[in-house]
Amino acid sequence: MTTQDRVERKKRNEMLTNLRKQHPERVKISQAKLKEQRSIRKTLQQVLKTKPHTIPQLAEATGLPAHQVLWYISIMKKYGKVVETGLDEDYEYYLYGLTRETE
Amino acid sequence: MPEQSDKSNPPEKELGLAPDPSPEEEPRIGVYVCNCGGNIGDVVNCKQVAEALRNIPNVVTSHSNMFMCSDPGQKLITDDIKEKGINRVVIGACSIFLHEQTFRQAVERAGLNPYLYYHVGLREQDSWVHYNHPEDATEKAIRLMLAGVAKARKMEPLEPVRLQAEKHALVIGGGVAGLRTALDIARSGLKVTLVEKSHFLGGRVAQWERVFPTGETARTLLQRLLEQVQAEPDITIHTGAKVVKTKGYVGNFQIHIRQQPRGIKADFDAVDQAIAACPVEIPDEFNYGLKTRKAIYQPYSGCYPAGPVVDWEHCTHCEKCLEFSHNHDINLDDTPIEFDINVGAVAVATGFRPYEPFPGEMGYGKFPEVITLPQLERLLAADGPTGGKLEWNGRSVRSLAMIHCVGSRQVDDVHQPQPDGQVNNYCSRVCCTATLNAANIIHERLPETRIYDVYTDIRTYGRGHEDYYTLASKNGVTFLRYFVEDIPEVYPAEKGSYYSMLVKVKDQLTWGEEIELPVDLVVLAVGMMPNPVDDLIGLFNITPGNDRFLLEVHPKLSPVETSVVGIVLAGTAQGPMNIQESCTAAAAAASKVVVLLGRGQVEMEPYVAQIDIERCQGNGDCVRVCPQEDAIKLETFSKNGTSFQRAVVTPANCNGCGVCVSTCSHRAIDVLGWRLDDYEAMVDAITAEIPVLEGVPA
Amino acid sequence: MKSDKIHVDTLVVGGGIAGMQASLDLANQGHQVALVEHSPSIGGMMIGLSKVFPTLDCCSCITTPKMAATAHHENIQLLTYCEVQSVTRNDDGFSVQVIQKPRYVIEDNCTGCRSCELVCPLDLPDVENEFGRTAHRVIYVPFTTAVPQKAIIDIDSCIFCGKCIKACPADCIDFTQTPQTLRVEARTIILATGFKVTPYDAKKEYGAGNLRNVIDAMMMERLLAPTGPYGRVLRPSDGKLPDSIAYVQCAGSRDETLGVPYCSRVCCMYAIKQAMLISGALPMADVTIYYMDIRTFGKGYEQFYQNAKAMGIEFVKGKVGRIVEDEDQNPIVRVELIDDNSRVAENKHDLVVLSVGMLPGYDTQPIYDVATAKDGFVQIPDSNVAPTVTTQEGIFATGTATGPMDIVDSIITAGAVAAEASAYMHLHSGSPAAPAAD
Q: Complex ipTM, two decimals?
């Protein structure tokens, strides 16, 4: 890293710190949200590591409401963390598994 | 004639020659496979297709994408052209009818000649027809794309044929749609000629009483429009006129018009006497046969153009009217005149006619008490046969039934088909609100009159239309609902009954109970059918749809354009519409005409025949088979003192059909952009072994 | 870079299908157009739809090329993420003040590569495009086919972690951006301000939005779209493939209690279309449509309806009085069956779709002084003959700003408004527009 890079980085970090200071309430709320999302995503990933699950199975395994699980799974699918692996026995629910990259 | 028009419209580019041969450049082909939002991708494995094309000679890059036509999809192509030096583009997607222009523009934007792109139809020609066989469909897609690549290797840059365009449009039809179109074109600075086959402007609207949703009389509305049209100096009106011959193409149509004379001078001052003297009496079509008229007539006072005309078909030349004619005010020997005009575009605003029930259909034609809704409108009109009084047999109508969907929403095996074997399976859009509007007018004038409304679905869909339904309910109109399998029956009551007619309805609102309605009058809310325009269909090569109305190219992409560039549709020639919808469609049609002609120049596809003068033997087979006028002819050349004949093409008149190509035994003709060599290369590619690819996920 | 003063012939307000088409028609006639859109992308409501009736073309295949054509047209200036603040009349027409909202991304440099979006740590419900059924990040490109393809930051949710700054290859992130004022001088204005749907939670009887498996038709469009939140039709409560789906027609139209007495024109057709698409996507599913009148009045629409009946979609004439749910969140529809002696039935479905109607998207009174009628849509005094002329001279209206209508009709009124505006400008200056933007 060149000196110039280091100066740039320092300047950037100062700016970001300032921005956070300017909007403490908003940032606090968002940080709390982020923490929650990270923990739920981690929980879901741990369950999915074992084998593909349906939304109700994930809900039961994690204790989260099914609609919330669906929300997380749709996002993880959108950003390439999760894929559909097939249907359950009754052809009622899709099974979701981790992508290779996520495993 | 063609020579003349060629001189007056000199083509910008020297025609008949091949474009400058491009410097021999190695084809660098970009291949793009579109999922079409699942239309293709749900059947064809687009990724696999793109993979299979990747290692083909000359293919530099190969992608699949969800929507190639979207901006990011187009950017993929333009970036490849700029960054990877792609000089040929092959896109497997929907149909060229949807997006050829889209992709041409994208390719051109990136600096490539737009004709160096080839479009493979993977939707209509593959995924939609083989939806049950995804694997085979994928293989077919690969083969079609390979053929596209083979074609792309041989593509050459082309230039569209640019021709001067007449800044002058023809509008056919003088009803509200035609008037509106003419007005809007003229107001944007182009000249307009309007031809109307009858002797008067105003069309069907002139026959109506009060219109929804504004509540004004149809006459007031029409008057307003007519005044604006008359005030527009760039509009020329010919009434009693018909298009009888046409020639040419967008920008340069030559239109031959025949105009019937009026037979009577506009300032003739003994109109009433002359009409009274005429002994001929025929049903008056303006009043839908509810009264008669003479062979000298005007539809209504205040019509435009003002003054009566001679009905040449029915005039017996008895000359009784001439007694009142001074200074040759009436000329019974008047003859039609014929003339030509040159226009750049044509708006077809030929309108509709009301459905005519078959004799006996719900008692129509059998019992005088059964009339149609347009006839009812005449009875309600102040200048109608009864002066606006709703009377039957000399007394006010005490009870009437209005039956919806007569001649609309018909089904096979229930309804009698038209002569072409088809029933009218479409909804006519306007009849529901028009019927309720009439019911409300009747209630207003005769509050004691009992009104039954017999419907299948009430379709008061438009802005303000629902109010007419609500008001009718408030006015005490009784609604009954029938199913199409139980068409209401109309028959006379027993002699001496208080009401002369009975209507039997199996009413679904009372759970299928059979109800007999005693009435004085039965009104059939008849639907719309297009005015017969077979002559224009033939003259302009435009197409009607299954419903017989003229067909647009695509309801969303080209909603008022026909498949013939330069011919647009305005109003009910295209389908049932109310006045507002007709005026809207007419204005939209005007907009397209202004876009087309505003610049005074039109572009045509460069796909025209080209002669290889070295191979041509001048035997003239091509000239004999050419279906176009003046597209190909033999000219005399001389070399070393001997003269001989060779074929020469006039590109502006050639439509690139290729009939000449197939006739030429010396292989001396090709259609630019579609050479025989191209086809051979494509056929070879389509039948070749295809690369096997496994394990590419969908 | 946009200049802060723009001279055009016509300012078009609203970048939905009507606004885009009006812009294209005018631009193709040689007029200079500025198109203002309040969202970060043009495309309007239409770009969110799945397939469109009666052709069943994929909706993106109709919309996205129009979006591209609008964006690339040499006579059209796009002003996305902008809002009109005030309009004053002057000798030549109008002087319009427009606020450009900050994206916090330098628009001219952003290539839409999404590197920023992929590293951003926080998910936000995508309310704008997906009714919250999935999410986007705090920095995001609005949707895959957005025009322009430019990222935008939801600044209120940003934690200023700086990951996007590091990830951006084009150095586009700019937290210092503030709203900018632009001035547009235009000879005419076209209002293409569109519609919004009647709120699906307005009716207490239908669960007031509290029943997870009662959704509205716009949400269903997203479930049916290939780019939608799940990529397929799943019910929102638990991701189940629905076996039995019901449509409740006129849920928000022809309903005096909601103050919407009029018919919204499109709901019959979109319900039938969706039912057909569901039959394609879920061949085993039963689809029932509860209706009062089926109004398939457009060209080819009646035949579309008859095809749907032939496909086995069930049309039941009935009044839906109430929707509740059982313990598994299955909606129970209480319906008076008109064709069955008005018997009241309670039918269980997996998913219920409310066929919501159309409300005006924008009140044109305050800023444009353009009168609205009692239904809230732009008032058209001479609606039969001049269907796009408003109460203000030089200001015209098109599409659903003038009342409920479908896409076909919106496109046609857009052509009509272009003719009207062009004629007006011709009449009031005699010469076509001078191409100028300083």
A: 0.92
> Mapping DSSP to helix (H, G, I), strand (E, B) and coil, where does residue C301 land?
helix
In contact, B461 and C265? CB cutoff 8 Å: yes
- Interface with chain C: mutation pick from A70, A84, A85, A89, highest number of C CBs within 10 Å: A70
Would you say the CATH fold of C199-357 matches that of C5-101+179-194+361-427?
A: yes
Residue B641: its pLDDT value, please?
A: 85
- C126, C127, C133, C138 alpha-carbon torsion, rounded to 10°: 20
Residues 6+ apart with CB under 8 A from C410: C16, C17, C18, C21, C398, C399, C400
Reported as a pLDDT band with limits 50, 70 and 90, residue B7 is: very low
Find, among B440, B423, B8, B27, the residue nearest to B215 by Cα.
Answer: B440
- Burial label for B528, CB within 10 Å (0-12, 13-18, 19+), is buried
- The stretch B445-454 carries a mean pLDDT of 96
Q: Does C297 touch chain A if contact means CB atoms closer than 8 Å?
A: no
Domains and CATH numbers, chain B: 29-159 (3.40.50), 168-259+338-351+535-601 (3.50.50.60), 271-335 (no CATH), 355-529 (3.50.50.60), 608-671 (3.30.70.20)
DSSP code of B44? S
Interchain CB contact of C161 with A (< 8 Å): yes
> Given a cut of 90, is residue C129 above it in pLDDT?
no
Residue with token string 């939209």:
B588
Residues 6+ apart with CB under 8 A from B214: B221, C382, C383, C384
Fold of the C199-357 domain: FAD/NAD(P)-binding domain (3.50.50)
Report yes or no: B167 at the C interface, CB cutoff 8 Å.
Answer: no
Contact list in C for residue B214 (CB cut-off 8 A) is: 382-384
Q: Is residue A75 within 8 angstroms of chain C, CB to CB?
A: yes
pLDDT at B674 over 50: yes
Q: What is the pLDDT of residue B14?
A: 36
* Architecture of the domain made up of C5-101+179-194+361-427: 3-Layer(bba) Sandwich (3.50)
User: Chain A within 8 Å of C322 (Cβ-Cβ)?
Assistant: no
Question: For residue B27, what are the contacts with CB-CB under 8 A and spacing of at least 6?
Answer: B58, B87, B88, B152, B153, B155
- In chain C, what are the domain boundaries? 5-101+179-194+361-427, 199-357
- Please give the angle made by the CA atoms of A25, A28 and A33, to the nearest 5 degrees: 130
> Which pLDDT tens digit goes with each residue over B182-224?
999 999 999 999 999 999 999 999 999 999 999 999 999 999 9
Beta-carbon separation of A74 and C156 below 8 A: no
Instruction: Return the structure tokens found at A50.
Output: 């074992």
β-bridge pairing B241-249 and C82-90: unpaired
From the list C329, C319, C298, the residue with the least C-alpha distance to C406 is C298
The answer to whether residue C285 neighbours chain A at the CB level (below 8 Å) is no
Q: Give chain C positions within 8 Å (CB) of A67.
A: 212, 236-238
Q: Which residues contact B258 (CB under 8 A, 6 or more apart)?
A: B241, B242, B244, B336, B337, B338
Strand pairing class (C286-291; B59-65): unpaired
List pLDDT tens digits, range B30-48. Answer: 999 999 878 899 899 999 9
Token look-up 């058209």 returns: C380
Report pLDDT digits (tens) over B575-619: 999 999 999 999 999 999 999 999 888 888 899 999 998 899 999
CB-CB under 8 Å, B72 with C144: yes
B585 vs chain C: nearest CA distance in angstroms?
6
Amino acid C244: pLDDT: 96
pLDDT greater than 70 at residue B559: yes
pTM for this model (two decimals) = 0.89
Domains and CATH numbers, chain A: 3-98 (1.10.10.10)
Query: Least CA distance to C234: which residue of chain A?
Result: A93
